[in-house]
Amino acid sequence: MSNNACLGYIISALRRQGWDDDEIREVTRAVYFEFDFKTPAEAEEIHAHRND
Predict the structure, then answer these.
(1) What would the pLDDT profile of 21-42 be if each residue is shown by its tens digit?
(2) d(CA 11, CA 5)
(3) Which of 9, 30, 42, 52 is 20 to 30 A from 3, comparing alpha carbons?
């Protein structure tokens, strides 16, 4: 999956939950930042342990 597709899913979900554009922009900027500092494998590991 591309980074842009990932951001698209996030934006869609946040809009569905009623978040405003400023909040969505803040989240997508934070996620975009993480793309530069986490490998896909690291992101998967974080997701796997999200409820720990």
Answers:
(1) 999 999 999 999 999 999 999 9
(2) 10
(3) 52
